[in-house]
Amino acid sequence: MSDPKAPATAAVRMLRQNKVDFVPRFYSYEEKGGTAVSARELGVDEHSVIKTLIMQDEAKKPFIVLMHGDRQVSTKELARILGVKAVSPCAAADADRYSGYQVGGTSPFATRRPMPVYMEETILDLPRICINGGKRGFLVEIDPREAQRLLQPVLVRVGI
Questions:
Q1: Strand pairing partners for 98?
Q2: DSSP code of residue 35
Q3: Is residue 5 one of the residues assigned to a domain?
Q4: What is the sign of the dihedral through the CA atoms of 37, 153, 160 and 142?
């Protein structure tokens, strides 16, 4: 199952409660290093490192977007899909408050505030993904279908 050395974050607790097989992956966190640093440190393709983005619409309603590390989100396309005028990343303090995690350690699992989740659909084409486990410098390696099972995301194509 999972490694008992994983930190006891809310995300890890959720994965364990739902019997998700995961591998804890630790790396040396660098401020503003993003997925390029975690991919380099872990020796994995940046495309398989999934970033958890806390975004909002023009009414400041927050939501989560899961995107490949080597891609950006087309906010114009996402706004069109959501039927809103605009979407943008949340300010770091707001993202921390909504998720319960610190930016750089934001996990989509067990967020403080329930939020809709949108997942780039090509993430499901990967055999394994590395996604934040709720702490800076800590990712969990899982089957992307497990993320789909737990998060019930809306699948989108908004990567550029």
A1: none
A2: H
A3: no
A4: positive
The Cα–Cα gap between 7 and 12 comes to 7
Residue 148 in contact with residue 124, Cβ under 8 Å? Answer: yes
Strand ranges, E, within the chain: 23-26, 49-57, 62-68, 87-89, 117-120, 129-135, 138-142, 154-156
CA distance 90 to 87: 9
Domains in the chain: how many in total?
1
pTM of this structure: 0.95
The answer to whether position 131 is within a domain reads: yes
In this predicted model, what pLDDT tens digit does every residue of 59-111 receive, in sequence order?
999 999 999 999 999 999 999 999 999 999 999 999 999 999 999 999 999 99
Q: In 18-137, where do the E strands start and end? A: 23-26, 49-57, 62-68, 87-89, 117-120, 129-135
Q: Please determine, for residue 4, whether its predicted confidence score (pLDDT) is greater than 80.
A: no
Quick one: CA torsion of 126, 50, 156, 14, rounded to 10 degrees? 100
CATH at 58:
3.90.960.10
Task: Tell me which residue range forms the domain holding 107.
Answer: 10-156
Rounded CA-CA distance 25/132 in Å is 9
